[in-house]
Amino acid sequence: xxxxxxxxxxxxxLTGCAQASPQLNIDINNKLSSCFQLQQQTISITxxxxxxxxxxxxxxxxxxxxxxxxxxxxxxxxxxxDLETQIIAGQFILNTEDSFNIPIASSxxxxxxxxxxxxxxxxxxx
Length: 126
Fold this sequence. Notes:
Strand content: over 45%
Radius of gyration: 15 Å
Distance between the termini: 23 Å
Number of helices: 1
Helix content: under 10%
């Protein structure tokens, strides 16, 4: 399975604020890139929580990528001095829509100006 790693420079979109926001270096490691391709990603802030809003295009059924279900997993890690610290993880479902929204941290304060690594993969069976 090919691994798609995209490096993004994303400006945070602060709802209702006209302030300039810091740029974040975000790497997205889509371990399921043979099944769906990320096309457009933005970060928004809702109640101090940074949310990844991603549009995607389905290439083939998720079961063809060795996933046991439509439930996928994600995790976000901050990178400091080449060390990664996981700050949030969860599951989501690729539905019939062409986009998904997932929180990438519990608070914007945790993210600060650190680089972020986001990984998308099959969810492990319970």
